[in-house]
Protein backbone atom coordinates (compact mmCIF):
# COMPACT_ATOMS: atom_id res chain seq x y z
CA UNK A 1 0.00 0.00 0.00
CA UNK A 2 1.28 3.44 -0.87
CA UNK A 3 1.57 6.09 1.79
CA UNK A 4 -1.10 8.26 0.10
CA UNK A 5 -3.59 5.34 0.08
CA UNK A 6 -2.91 4.69 3.78
CA UNK A 7 -3.51 8.36 4.56
CA UNK A 8 -6.80 8.33 2.62
CA UNK A 9 -7.98 5.16 4.38
CA UNK A 10 -7.02 6.40 7.84
CA UNK A 11 -8.65 9.78 7.15
CA UNK A 12 -11.88 8.08 6.10
CA UNK A 13 -11.89 5.88 9.21
CA UNK A 14 -11.13 8.81 11.52
CA UNK A 15 -14.81 9.82 11.58
CA UNK A 16 -17.07 7.94 14.01
CA UNK A 17 -19.99 7.20 11.65
CA UNK A 18 -17.65 6.00 8.90
CA UNK A 19 -15.76 3.77 11.31
CA UNK A 20 -19.07 2.34 12.56
CA UNK A 21 -20.26 1.72 8.98
CA UNK A 22 -16.98 0.07 8.02
CA UNK A 23 -17.01 -2.17 11.11
CA UNK A 24 -20.59 -3.17 10.31
CA UNK A 25 -19.62 -4.09 6.75
CA UNK A 26 -16.61 -6.07 7.94
CA UNK A 27 -18.91 -8.00 10.30
CA UNK A 28 -21.38 -8.58 7.45
CA UNK A 29 -18.69 -10.38 5.46
CA UNK A 30 -18.23 -10.57 1.69
CA UNK A 31 -21.96 -10.60 0.95
CA UNK A 32 -22.24 -7.05 2.26
CA UNK A 33 -25.33 -5.20 3.39
CA UNK A 34 -27.98 -2.99 1.76
CA UNK A 35 -27.53 0.73 2.34
CA UNK A 36 -30.94 0.99 4.00
CA UNK A 37 -30.04 -1.68 6.51
CA UNK A 38 -26.75 0.06 7.31
CA UNK A 39 -28.58 3.34 7.88
CA UNK A 40 -31.18 1.63 10.06
CA UNK A 41 -28.56 -0.11 12.20
CA UNK A 42 -26.56 3.09 12.65
CA UNK A 43 -29.52 5.47 12.92
CA UNK A 44 -28.30 7.65 10.07
CA UNK A 45 -30.51 9.45 7.56
CA UNK A 46 -29.99 8.30 3.98
CA UNK A 47 -28.29 11.52 2.80
CA UNK A 48 -25.80 11.40 5.70
CA UNK A 49 -25.16 7.70 5.18
CA UNK A 50 -24.63 8.22 1.46
CA UNK A 51 -22.01 10.89 2.19
CA UNK A 52 -20.13 8.64 4.62
CA UNK A 53 -20.26 5.56 2.38
CA UNK A 54 -18.99 7.66 -0.52
CA UNK A 55 -16.02 8.78 1.59
CA UNK A 56 -15.22 5.15 2.41
CA UNK A 57 -15.61 4.21 -1.25
CA UNK A 58 -13.27 6.98 -2.40
CA UNK A 59 -10.70 5.72 0.12
CA UNK A 60 -11.00 2.25 -1.42
CA UNK A 61 -12.35 0.65 1.75
CA UNK A 62 -15.82 -0.25 0.46
CA UNK A 63 -17.47 -0.99 -2.85
CA UNK A 64 -21.07 -1.52 -3.87
CA UNK A 65 -23.18 -3.40 -6.34
CA UNK A 66 -26.73 -2.83 -7.46
CA UNK A 67 -29.36 -5.49 -6.85
CA UNK A 68 -32.64 -4.28 -8.25
CA UNK A 69 -33.25 -0.92 -6.61
CA UNK A 70 -30.91 -1.60 -3.70
CA UNK A 71 -27.26 -0.74 -3.33
CA UNK A 72 -25.36 -3.46 -1.51
CA UNK A 73 -22.16 -2.24 0.11
CA UNK A 74 -19.30 -4.52 1.09
CA UNK A 75 -15.98 -4.00 2.80
CA UNK A 76 -12.92 -4.26 0.57
CA UNK A 77 -11.02 -6.86 2.58
CA UNK A 78 -7.83 -6.65 0.48
CA UNK A 79 -7.66 -2.90 1.19
CA UNK A 80 -8.24 -3.51 4.90
CA UNK A 81 -5.49 -6.15 4.97
CA UNK A 82 -3.13 -3.85 3.07
CA UNK A 83 -3.77 -1.05 5.57
CA UNK A 84 -3.11 -3.30 8.55
CA UNK A 85 0.04 -4.61 6.87
CA UNK A 86 1.18 -1.06 6.12
CA UNK A 87 0.72 -0.10 9.75
CA UNK A 88 2.56 -3.14 11.10
CA UNK A 89 5.33 -3.62 8.55
CA UNK A 90 7.81 -1.43 10.42
CA UNK A 91 6.55 -2.22 13.89
CA UNK A 92 8.70 -5.25 14.50
CA UNK A 93 12.17 -3.94 13.66
CA UNK A 94 13.49 -7.38 14.48
CA UNK A 95 11.67 -7.60 17.81
CA UNK A 96 8.07 -8.75 17.24
CA UNK A 97 7.49 -9.07 20.98
CA UNK A 98 7.98 -5.31 21.36
CA UNK A 99 4.79 -4.84 19.33
CA UNK A 100 2.95 -7.73 20.94
CA UNK A 101 3.24 -9.77 17.75
CA UNK A 102 4.56 -13.21 17.05
CA UNK A 103 7.46 -13.56 14.63
CA UNK A 104 5.03 -15.14 12.15
CA UNK A 105 2.68 -12.15 12.34
CA UNK A 106 5.58 -9.78 11.75
CA UNK A 107 6.71 -11.76 8.70
CA UNK A 108 3.13 -11.88 7.40
CA UNK A 109 2.88 -8.08 7.70
CA UNK A 110 6.12 -7.63 5.80
CA UNK A 111 4.85 -9.98 3.06
CA UNK A 112 1.38 -8.40 2.96
CA UNK A 113 -0.41 -11.53 4.12
CA UNK A 114 -2.51 -12.29 7.17
CA UNK A 115 -1.80 -14.74 9.95
From TrEMBL:
Domain of life: Bacteria
Cross-referenced SMART domains: HTH_ARSR
Sorted UniProt keywords: DNA-binding, Transcription, Transcription regulation
Keyword DNA-binding belongs to the record: yes
A single GO molecular function term of this UniProt record: DNA-binding transcription factor activity
Family matches, as CDD domains: HTH_ARSR (cd00090)
Domain HTH arsR-type: 1-95
Coiled-coil residues: none
Keyword field contains DNA-binding: yes
InterPro entries per record: ArsR-like_HTH, HTH_ArsR_DNA-bd_dom, Metal_resp_trans_reg, WH-like_DNA-bd_sf, WH_DNA-bd_sf
NCBIfam families reported for this sequence: HTH_metalloreg
Protein name: Helix-turn-helix transcriptional regulator
Amino acid sequence: MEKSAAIAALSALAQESRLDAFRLLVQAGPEGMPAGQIGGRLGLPSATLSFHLNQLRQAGLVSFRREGRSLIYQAEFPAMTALVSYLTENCCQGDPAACGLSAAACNDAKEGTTA
